[in-house]
Structures are given as C-alpha cells and as structure tokens.
Amino acid sequence: MPEYTNTQKKILEIGKKEFLKKGFKDASLRGIVKEAGFTQGAFYGYYPDKVSLFEALVSEAADGLMEQFKAAQDAHFDLIPGDKAAQSRNLSTEYLECFINYIYDNFDAFKLVVCCADGTRYAGYIHDLVELDVAQTERYHAELEKHGKLEGHVGRKLHHMITSAYFTAVFETVAHDMSREEAVEYVRELASFFNSGWEGLLRLK
C-alpha cells in the first residue's frame, strides 16, 4: 500500500466522491480541485490528469484481482496429475468466494470499475476477465480431453456467452450495493446454478 501525504489523501477522497457521483466522463477535474481546496498546480504535483487520478483509485484493487484470477486458473491444471479433475467445479466455487470477499474488501474501487469507468482502460474490465477465463478454460479442457477426463464439448461462442453472463452476474453484487453477507450467499447460489449447467454440457471424470 503506497504512502500518501495528507494533500494526496484529500485529493483521492474528493476524487472518489466525484467519480462515484458522476462517473469518470462527467467528473470535473476543476470541481475536484476546488472542493479539495487546492490550486490546480498542487493537484498536478500528484497527478498529471483525471485519468491518472482515477487509476490511482482503482488500479491496485482491480489489477490485484486480475492477478489472483490468473493464479486460480493455473491451479486447476494441478488437479490433472492427481486424478482430481472432477473437483474442478468445487475449486472454482471456493475461489469465487475468495474473490467476492476481496471485492468487498475493496468495494469502492470495484464500484468505480463496474459503474463509473466508461472512458478509461477499465471500462472493459469484465470483458477482459471473460476473455482470460475463456482462453484459460479452453486450454484446460484441451488438457482434460488429452487425458480422457472430459466428455462433451462446447463451442467458443456459447462458451463466451455463458462466461460473460456469469461474470456480469457476479459483479451485479457491486452494481446493486449488496451487503457482503448477501453477496456471498448470492454467488454461492450463482455458482450452483452455473455448475449444474456446465455439468449438463461437460462431464468431468
């Protein structure tokens, strides 16, 4: 966690409030500076533009989740040598609960990403997660097929649509301001629903 000066903390606090209220596109840098009580010169001493301020608020949490997700995807491959591929869906559900708690530990950052990021590189964040998941899962399925541990097949278009629906549904917890307790129960039910669907299409051995 970076160390911030009091001035920087105030800029971040006011900036977050402005972005949450208006979204990135409509947020006013001049308004942020004015409410913070600083000159624009003081602001530019910390952030060169509105984009960098937004990224300072979200990048650590959003990039951290992406890295955790990549590690979780890799962990599935470790199930194959131990003949534990059938546990893959349970593993996914366990990781999902870890992810939702991480999201709620950084709720404001993910609220900005999910609801306020249009016009920034985080506008496609959910899509990026979907693309990563589809690519990694296809690699995993190919490895399972090679070892005779997978029955059934799903085409890429359907795979992408299902995964997109899943991730969109997961982040509805943030969009609708669910409590952490509601969110955890919701994603458990969501995982159960989607796991049943995947089991109907692909049977793991």
**Structural class, please?**
mainly alpha
Distance between the termini: 43 Å
Number of domains: 2
Helix content: over 70%
Q: Tell me about the biggest sheet?
A: 2 strands, antiparallel
Series of secondary-structure elements, N-terminal to C-terminal: HHHHHHHEHHE
User: What's the gyration radius in Å?
Assistant: 20 Å
Strand order, sheet with most strands: 1-2
> How many helical elements?
9
Q: Return the average pLDDT rounded to an integer.
A: 92
Overall geometric form: elongated
Low-confidence stretches: none
Percentage of residues in DSSP E strands: under 5%
- Per DSSP E runs of 2 or more residues, the count of β-strands stands at 2
List the helices and strands and how they pair.
Blueprint: H1 6-26, H2 29-36, H3 40-44, H4 50-77, H5 88-105, H6 107-115, H7 125-146, E1 150-151, H8 156-175, H9 180-201, E2 203-204
Helix pairs in contact: 1-2, 1-4, 1-6, 4-5, 4-6, 4-7, 5-6, 5-9, 7-8, 8-9
Short synopsis of the structure:
With 205 residues, this protein is an all-alpha fold. It has helices spanning 6-26, 29-36, 40-44, 50-77, 88-105, 107-115, 125-146, 156-175, 180-201; strands spanning 150-151, 203-204.
Summary keywords:
Arc Repressor Mutant, subunit A; two-stranded antiparallel ribbon; elongated; mainly alpha
Report on the structure:
With 205 residues, the protein is an all-alpha fold. The chain folds into 2 domains: 1-48, Homeodomain-like (Arc Repressor Mutant, subunit A, Orthogonal Bundle), CATH 1.10.10; 58-204. It has 9 helices and 2 strands; from the N terminus they run αααααααβααβ. It has helices spanning 6-26, 29-36, 40-44, 50-77, 88-105, 107-115, 125-146, 156-175, 180-201; strands at residues 150-151, 203-204. Strands 1-2 form a two-stranded antiparallel ribbon. Helix 1 crosses helix 4, helix 5 crosses helix 6 and helix 5 packs antiparallel against helix 9 (180-201). It is elongated, with a radius of gyration of 20 Å. Keywords: DNA-binding.
